[in-house]
Every structure is written in structure tokens, then in C-alpha cells.
Specification:
This protein has 258 residues and is α/β, with parallel strands linked by helices. It has one domain: Rossmann fold, CATH 3.40.50. Helices cover 29% and strands 25% of the residues. The chain has seven helices and 13 strands. Strands 8-12-9-10-11 form a five-stranded mixed β-sheet. Strand 10 and strand 11 form a beta hairpin. The protein starts with a strand and ends in a 5-residue tail after the last helix.
């Protein structure tokens, strides 16, 4: 499964000049949606057997999130860290993660959180599946059945849909799928002593094109961030018998209707 270490989104600052999140401005934590993904993977392991391998791409300090994953039931942790991975958009990020998965070899199921709180795109999981050429289902809120070669899941996309896909496959899960467990002190202490493998760009060279990593492999670039003013965020409530007429006039004044 895939996890990401993110800044505390309630405290983080945005660098308007560079168009980037100032990750040093807030403490780091594991992306909350990824904890649900980890819990899903661990429960499947406990029910059906197998092993849970956790992969994260990020700076060296992301190791702490991987150790937390080990404390919560993961069996193996791999950190992808290299300056050549920096500046990646979702396409380059997903390609790098998919390349690492190819290096791992065979697998049955990849589980991801539906999105990250810092990027909020929900693109990386499905893009990883496309790079690997496997089926995928997003916004999974329930895993109904898992057999040797198929998985049956419920996807919540406003309405709920039942999907059955062949394995290997990838799913992204919502926060409604479960409540992540709290690791015991014993598990935390054990995770501190566990090995976290570190792979750099050279480690993946035989499994993908290194020119597609990081900024060099990115197709999009954030050029400017604009933070709406408090004034611009205020809403207007129209009441009374003439509410519709006043709403139409306000929309016309702002240029939304002719």
C-alpha cells in the first residue's frame, strides 16, 4: 500500500511567491486517508493471510510515518527518497511509485487513501494503476468479498455502486470504510527497531525511466497561488418575497448572467 507524510493542514503556510506549500511551517503527520487504507490492508491480511508492504515517497523524515505504519500492522516499509524525486506532480509521483512496485515484483492488491490533504487531487492512486496496467476502483467505502482472483467492493461516488474487478488491482478508500487502530506501546517500540528500506532513483533505474521522475518528469507546474480574502469568502443570504429578484440582480451585477 502507499502512504504519504503531509504537513498538518490546519497549521501549514503557503508560499505565494513560489507557489508551493511551506512544509517546514507545520508539524508532519501521516495523511489521514492513508491510515484508513492501512487499516483496510491489515484487516485483509488478518483475515486472508499475506503481507502488507508500505511504500512512501518523500524526504528522509517521512521515515517516521513508515515506522508508524509498521506499528499499526505493516510487515515491510520502503522509503523512496532522492533529490531527483523532488518537484514531482501527480504524474511523476505516480510513475515513481509504480516503478517501485514493479521492483517489488508480484502483488495482489494495492490500497491507497482516496486523496491527500495537502494536494486533494485524488489522482495518484488511479494513475499508479494506469502505469501498471491493472484495474482500479476509487472511493471504496466497503470491501464485500475477496477471493483468490477477484475483489468485490462498494464505491461511494454520491450514489453507491458495486464493482467486481480481477486481481491484481488497486483501490482507493474513503474515511467511511473503517476506524484506524491505535498502535500499542509494544508495537511502537518494536517498530522503532524495525528496518526501513531506503531506495533512491538509481535503485529504480532498471525498472523505469529515471527521466520521468521528479520535476523533469512532471507535465504540470504551479505558477501562482492566490488565497481568497475573507471578504471574498463571505456569503449573502436573500430573504423575503423579492429574494429571487435580488439574487438575479446580484448575479447580473457580478457578470454571471447577462
Amino acid at each position: 500500500m502507499l502512504i504519504k507524510q503531509v504537513p498538518d493542514i490546519e497549521k501549514v503556510r503557503f508560499d505565494v511567491e513560489t507557489g508551493r506549500v511551506d512544509r517546514s511551517s507545520a508539524p508532519a503527520e501521516t495523511n489521514p486517508f492513508d491510515l484508513n487504507a492501512l487499516e483496510t490492508a491489515v484487516r485483509l491480511k488478518e483475515k486472508l493471510g499475506g503481507r502488507v508492504t508500505v511504500i512512501s515517497m518523500g524526504p528522509p523524515q517521512a521515515e517516521s510515518s513508515l515506522r508508524d505504519a509498521l506499528a499499526r500492522g505493516a510487515d515491510r516499509a520502503i522509503l523512496l527518497t532522492d533529490k531527483r524525486f523532488a518537484g514531482a506532480d501527480t504524474l511523476a509521483t505516480s510513475y515513481t511509485l509504480a516503478t517501485a512496485i514493479r521492483k517489488l515484483g508480484s502483488f495482489d492488491l494495492i490500497v491507497c487513501g482516496e486523496k491527500t490533504v495537502d494536494g486533494d487531487t485524488g489522482q495518484v492512486g488511479p494513475e499508479v494503476a494506469e502505469h501498471l496496467g491493472i484495474p482500479h476502483v476509487a472511493y471504496v467505502c466497503e470491501v464485500r468479498e475477496v477471493s483468490e482472483d477477484r475483489i468485490l467492493v462498494v464505491s461511494d461516488m454520491g450514489d453507491k455502486y458495486l464493482f467486481e474487478v480481477t486481481l491484481p488491482a488497486l483501490i482507493t478508500v474513503t474515511k467511511d470504510i473503517n476506524t484506524p487502530r491505535i498502535p500499542t506501546l509494544r508495537d511502537v517500540l518494536k517498530a522503532r527497531r524495525a528496518k526501513v528500506e531506503v531506495w533512491d532513483a538509481d535503485s529504480l533505474a532498471g525498472y523505469g525511466e529515471t527521466c520521468r521522475f521528479g520535476l523533469q518528469g512532471s507535465m504540470t507546474l504551479v505558477t501562482r497561488i492566490t488565497i481568497p480574502s475573507e471578504e471574498g469568502r463571505r456569503g449573502i443570504i436573500f430573504r423575503g418575497e423579492d429574494a429571487v429578484e435580488r439574487l438575479i440582480e446580484a448575479l447580473r451585477k457580478e457578470g454571471f448572467i447577462p
